[in-house]
Amino acid sequence: MPTAYLIHCDLIDKNKNLFNGKRSDIFAKFDVEGKSYEKVSYHASPQQPFHDCLTDSHVNSITLRVRDEDSELFEFNGMPIEFELEIN
Q: How much is the pTM?
């Protein structure tokens, strides 16, 4: 059973973002809480750093992926997942 969700984002600048000392497109890491069938809300801490993004003045889409510690896509067994993004 994975112990963390790693949220990857295609807009993260891998050249300016490090995770465990390696270049990465990881946007956030959350420790897994609750059981697979329970609704759990994860809240980012105010200390979570901003990440440099690879964008010009227009963004048409954002791709987010949830992976485990082994970089395997996280299987939610048909259960829905919801992301809430705050864009500044």
A: 0.65
